[in-house]
Amino acid sequence: MSDTYDIQYANEAVADIRALRAYDRRKVLDGIKEHLTHQPKFVSRTRIKAMVQPFWSQFRLRIEDFRVYYDVDDETH
């Protein structure tokens, strides 16, 4: 059984998501839930990329034309 990660949004991310069209907002939120709930550190060739540090986030998730930058805290999932 795999662990489930809680997703917490920064205030800036909430504002950015709210600014999207409803169709794009749903696409981004569904992609975040699908890819980051169970294996947020699973690097893939096209979807999830580990960022070269120092960078302001640990990972990047690509959802079509959108990029979601995020960090993973293993101690709080």
- Secondary structure class reads alpha+beta
Mean pLDDT: 93
- Please provide the ordered H/E string of secondary-structure elements: HHEEE
Kindly, what is the distance between the CA atoms of the first and last residues, rounded to a whole number of angstroms?
Answer: 14 Å
**Sheet having the most strands:** 3 strands, antiparallel
* Low-confidence spans: none
Strand order of the largest sheet: 1-2-3
Strand tally:
3
Helix content: 25-40%
Number of structural domains = 1
- Outline: globular
Rg calculated over all Cα atoms: 12 Å
Strand content: 15-25%
Please count the helical segments.
2
Structure characterization notes:
- By secondary structure, the protein is an alpha+beta fold.
- The chain has one domain.
- The protein has 2 helices and 3 strands.
- A hairpin with an 8-residue loop joins strand 1 and strand 2.
- The two termini are 14 Å apart.
- 8% of the residues are buried.
